[in-house]
Amino acid sequence: MKVLGVSDSRIKAPNVDRIYSRSELNVAAAEGDFLVVLVPLSEKTYHIVNAEVLSAMKPTGFVLNLARGGCVDETALIEALQAGTIAGAGLDVFEHEPLPQKDPIWSAPNVVLTPHIAGFADIVAEQCLPTVIKNLKIYLKAGPSGLNSAIPNRLR
Q: What is the domain count for the chain?
């Protein structure tokens, strides 16, 4: 298997054949069979997988979002799935959770949905604890409004 990565902070990684910059995401998406989204949600990654990225993919390509719902433009994803621009998607996270019963993603073709469980592993506490500690410190210092001001409105 050939593994491609996309990053602005790494130029190489173990078992990764090539790393593209984020500005080259469309090029990487066009080469891959699976586009696996594994980025934290931020202003820079909000809808990082959008209509342009989806249209660059092969018609046999799949999107797997294991990151955060806001990283994938779900409206553009549904349109790509309905048009057959891509072959399918696996979604563990959604922009609005829990996913509303009437959300069109439920009836989109070739989608597998899982209930936000992809992040669970034997090292989940090790991975998450630094963020929990940081947020607790903000909360203790500034209360709930401190947490609210630390997170941009559209990412809440």
A: 2
